[in-house]
Amino acid sequence: MTKTISEPAAPQRPYSFERHGIRVEDPWAWLRDPAYPKVGDRDILDYLEAENAWFDSAMAPHKPLIDTLFAEMKGRIKEDDSSVPQKDGDWLYWRAFEAGAQYRLWYRKPVAGGEDQLILDEPALAQGHEYFRLGAMSVSPNGRYLAYAIDTDGSERFEARIKDLSTGALLPDIIPDTLSALVWTSDSQGLVYGVANDNWRTDNARLHRLGQPVDSDVELFHEDDDGFRVSVGLTSSEKWIVIATGDHVTSEAWLVPADDPTAAPLLVAPRQPNREYDVDEHEGTLYIKTNDSHPNFRLVKASLDAPDDWQEIIAPDDHFYLTDFTLFKQFYVTEGRQDGLDQIEVRDYATHAAKRLPFPEASYSASLDDNPEYDVTKLRIGYESMVTPDTIYDYHLVDDRFELLKVQEIPSGYDASRYATERLMIQARDGTDIPVSIVYPRDLPRDGSAPLHLYGYGAYGIAMEPGFSTGRLSLLDRGFAFALAHIRGGDDLGQQWYLDGKLDKRTNTFNDFVDVARGLVARGYTSAGRISISGGSAGGELMGAVINSDPDVWGAVVAHVPFVDVLNTMLDETLPLTPGEWPEWGNPIEDADAFRTILSYDPYSNVRAQAYPPLMVTAGLNDPRVTYWEPAKWVAKLRATKTDDNILLLKTNMGAGHGGKSGRFESLTESAEEFAFILWQLGISG
What we know:
The protein has twelve helices and 38 strands. It is α+β, with helices and mostly antiparallel strands.
């Protein structure tokens, strides 16, 4: 007999707490294992496994559609693809996939000529592991050693190893729990790195000497503020190692000589609340990007002798958001967004005059690609749009010329003329114009009959780039429009755009998303109930908020690793991310207003007795960013509270973390499941 799978129901166990005079009931708090990050409580595991069985049972009838979608998505991937080789010193470096492989091979060969050399074999490293991710990797200045870090369970605690490329042998040095870049010293005999502490926070920078025991590594810097995290890097000239520390709103940087890393560090400028800065060095002059006088940042310079005496060289601009700068020997490059559109500018050191590079489309994504060398006459640039596949150019500075190197190949075929893309402005309820990037089949009807998928994030000042997606074609070719909502909370229109979607302005993010959807309906792209939506992490919080506030608008909802138990997480300073997250969300432990604000929109706290749209939720048991119990508690509460019969599914990856399954084809399976769920709920046949 076939076993009948029933919809799980997590039992309620009375639990409540009081804070700032408000009592909060949380009868599913038991789903957090007190031994976390170990999860061994049998009741918890039984519930998660029951949810997974329910997911499998519900999706089983749609297996043919999932298989069809997977085959489409896989057919658009060039299986034996390789990157464009790039010169770094005496070598050309590139990476490649073999046909059928889930992971990359990394190669190099001498610029002067010679055989290809396989320097890192990801498929071999991944063998026997359910999950695999390559983190930092770095070749030593003398070209002999490769340092790399791997994660084999999704916990984002990477083990660093060092390979002697002259022999192919691994050195005995093993550095556990790294969570940083791996930066070589000038003599190729040392690595500067950071280790995640017990609370998954990098609070240090350490120096490891090859062949020495790891427990004898020298701590170069230690951060005492629980909300700050330490990172390490190298200046463009490779003369200085940068040790940076900060949270979401405040930063501080120290410099140590790459040829003498144990020398006394040089403080660039002491931390000041709500001031961020990044630093690089050119010929003894420091270049610093900072938001000290304007949210859109400016560029200043200073001497090494007086690093906190800043002289402005690029003034801030209300319409140009300075996002990055890169120093080269003869010139430097600034990157930013002009009214939300990417710009790349080449500047000279004498006058700082800008040559802005032209791009052909009205909506696109463009940025510097891999440019490892300091003394160059050309720039590697990446470009794409919602209809233009990923394209790699070299821009030659001497004759102001773009050289096309590679266009993403789509083996099953792609005809860009079948699709149209636009950049719309839709007014939110407070009168603010919200940018929307949309792509659709050219024959899309404008009578409201078409389905539309709307994606959003809106947090941490992370912009949504209007780039290309081969997977997205499976929706477009079934008559969908696909839209990106550039809502407040991201920095799509500058840092003020970010500031206007955080803390006590957080609800702007949710309102923007709903108002964009209603604006698209008003313009005839779709209609209420024909809109599918998705978002992950903080974008999953967005999903939870908008289904509480406007459940009737959505026909299907997918929330990936959703940050939906915001209040409880921000009240628990023992969790890995919480202290560093208070500048983003507020500190409800100390601030009663922050407590009430978060409580007012927190998706889990605001689940109510009403009809909800069909919902698919994913989680990762080993996820250190959004812990597994957040989506589990949310789903349990929704099951017990909602008044409809719409499907509600929770899938927990029991061997993965925040990014879901690893491997280029395994991740396609999850995308195929998501799209199959959407098509099923919108009544669209495969």
